[in-house]
Write a structure and sequence with these properties.
single chain; Rossmann fold; 2 domains; binds magnesium ion; HAD-SF_hydro_IIA; phosphatase activity; HAD-like_sf; HAD_sf
């Protein structure tokens, strides 16, 4: 793709694009600065539902990127499926608890109470290290009692410097299998995240956006959900562009920005 004169918003994944386990990727901070200097808005779009908003802002601040109000997480997307006053079993981390609480729901966190009792309107699932048999049981009982099942993302793994660890999608899969219910999944590449991004960037059309990410099945597919361009970086989970349908390919974010502004 030649220079995108119409480009107004870049949707930027975090892991594999800005950093690897919070170790900055060469040139990424400068690339964000160059986008902004060219009048292009950057929204950081991540399937991480574990970190709170403040933690995401602080992590970006540490690599020199001001991002308050510009981070969109799968936890925020999940909370759009919750209504004020609902009773919600949150099987997830701090970020998910924060967003569902922020929505005005009554939140029960299974690993913070002695026993989970009563009916629920929804079970919301994301990555958390406390997941165990008792939490699976509580989720099963709640869904059998009529609660909606909502997952922040369907990612099977999460990258770390020591190799992948099970992601929120693997926890969700266990709950789906036990309940026999397919969850509404809200993060990339699914529609709730696309709706959330569109609501945060009103007036900007899909042809004026580009999603930059390192994973074709989430970031590339999310670009398709939105109907926008896809910029593939080779600095994360994908090391070769062979056979991949991307509009722009770069070794890293800096190489993508070289091509679009
Ligand atoms: Mg990524």
């Amino acid at each position: 793709m030649s220079k995108m004169n119409s480009l107004k918003t870049v949707l930027c994944d975090l892991d594999g694009v800005i950093w690897l386990a919070h170790e900055p990727i060469d040139g990424s901070t400068d690339a964000i600065r160059r986008l902004r200097e060219n009048g292009i808005r950057v929204l950081f779009v991540t399937n991480n539902s574990f970190s709170t908003r403040a933690q995401q802002h602080a992590a970006l601040e540490r690599v020199g990127i001001a991002a308050e109000g510009h981070v969109v997480t799968s936890a925020m997307a999940a909370s759009t499926h919750i209504s004020q006053g609902e009773r919600v079993l949150v099987c997830g981390g701090e970020g998910l608890i924060e967003e569902v609480t922020h929505r005005g729901a009554e939140v029960v966190v299974p690993y913070r109470v002695d026993s989970v009792v009563g009916d629920f309107d929804a079970v919301v699932v994301g990555f958390h290290r406390e997941f165990n048999f008792d939490i699976l049981s509580a989720a099963l009982t709640a869904v059998r009692g009529g609660a909606r099942l909502i997952g922040s993302n369907s990612d099977p793994t999460y990258p770390t410097p020591h190799g992948p660890i099970p992601g929120g999608g693997s926890i969700l899969a266990a709950i789906e299998h036990a309940t026999g219910v397919k969850a509404i999944v809200t993060g990339k590449p699914h529609q709730p995240m696309a709706d959330l991004v569109a609501s945060l960037d009103p007036g900007v059309g899909a042809h004026e956006m580009m999603m930059v990410g390192d994973v074709v099945s989430t970031d590339g597919a999310f670009a398709r959900t939105l109907g926008c361009a896809f910029g593939l970086v080779l600095s994360g989970m994908t090391s070769s562009p062979e056979g991949i349908d991307a509009d722009v390919v770069g070794a890293n974010l800096a190489a993508i920005v070289d091509q679009v502004v």
